[in-house]
Amino acid sequence: xxxxxxxxxxxxxxxxxxxxxxxxxxxxxxxxxxxxxxxxxxxxxxxxxxxxxxxxxxxxxxxxxxxxxxxxxxxxxxxxxxxxxxxxxxxxxxxxxxxxxxxxxxxxxxxxxxxxxxxxxxxxxxxxxxxxxx
Length: 134
What we know:
This protein has a single domain, classed as Roll (2,3-Dihydroxybiphenyl 1,2-Dioxygenase, domain 1), CATH 3.10.180. A hairpin with a 5-residue loop joins strand 3 (about 45) and strand 4 (about 55-60). The chain is built from two helices and eight strands; from the N terminus they run E-H-E-E-E-E-H-E-E-E. By secondary structure, it is of the alpha+beta class. The protein has helices spanning about 15-25, 85-95, and strands at about 5-10, 30, 45, 55-60, 75-80, 100, 105-110, 115-120. An eight-stranded mixed beta sheet has the order 2-3-4-1-5-8-7-6, with helices on one face. The chain is globular and about 40 Å long. The two termini are about 30 Å apart. InterPro entries: Glyas_Bleomycin-R_OHBP_Dase, Glyoxalase_6. Pfam families: Glyoxalase_6. This is VOC family protein.
């Protein structure tokens, strides 16, 4: 399996504000329509010219990290685009991952030491029907 790193997801209390902050630093477009992500749950996206996306995930009781205090760890996860979710899930489970959730149309797993990551459908392999996820 060769997955594509497609997105980095950061927890935060105000997704739009954080997306605008990073847009001011690196450019891009906030909440560009894209069938790969939805913003209907309060999340925001920042699409960069390179095609890479940052996603800002709403967390109601957000506690910021305190570098380098492990009691308040860094809060982000990786999204990997794969051609087949079932096949990719089997492969990463065999490598030592643990399935956390598969109810959202993508798969959330933990690496062998507990860091969450997601396997998502590789939309670039599907015909573009003009639909955006959010």
